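Here is the promised in-class demo. Please do not try to memorize the tokens; focus on the logic of going from shape to residues.
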């Protein structure tokens, strides 16, 4: 029998799968207010000016992007010179992100994972990240998660959360 959290997690994942298709579909049609794929395809960034202003120089840095949805911000970070790994809970979002990154030849890879399980998934990854990024009202929900995310950071960089 599944526990209460497992049931919640499953429902949350279903919701994000639906949202990934809705958001990317609206973006493809040009009807999404927030997701402007045409601009991204034209080489523009999906990041807000306030986010860009707060970011360090990402050239040749390894960036971990948590809750990346279908990859627009991940690709924008990659265009700033970073090698980016985007992580999202929605398998459908990751599939869309992979197609978009391939289409745009972005230096980004994507992992489907619950961020709480990410440290176990990436245990063999010997490299740490120079920067961890999360945006658009995605919060680090617990000290346990915050601590696990810090394990991915190299000693010289910071963790930034943007609440746009």
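The designed amino acids, position by position:
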């Amino acid at each position: 029998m599944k526990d209460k959290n497992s049931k919640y997690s499953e429902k949350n994942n279903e919701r994000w799968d639906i949202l990934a298709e809705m958001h990317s579909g609206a973006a493809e049609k040009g009807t999404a207010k927030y997701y402007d794929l045409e601009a991204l395809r034209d080489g523009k960034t999906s990041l807000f000016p306030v986010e860009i202003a707060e970011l360090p120089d990402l050239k040749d840095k390894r960036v971990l992007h948590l809750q990346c949805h279908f990859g627009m911000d991940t690709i924008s970070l990659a265009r700033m010179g970073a090698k980016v790994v985007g992580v999202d809970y929605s398998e459908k979002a990751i599939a869309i992100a992979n197609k978009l990154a391939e289409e745009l030849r972005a230096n980004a890879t994507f992992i489907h994972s619950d961020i709480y399980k990410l440290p176990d998934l990436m245990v063999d990854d010997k490299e740490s990240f120079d920067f961890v990024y999360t945006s658009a009202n995605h919060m680090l929900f617990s000290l346990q998660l915050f601590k696990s995310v810090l394990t991915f950071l190299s000693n010289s960089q910071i963790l930034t959360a943007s609440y746009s």
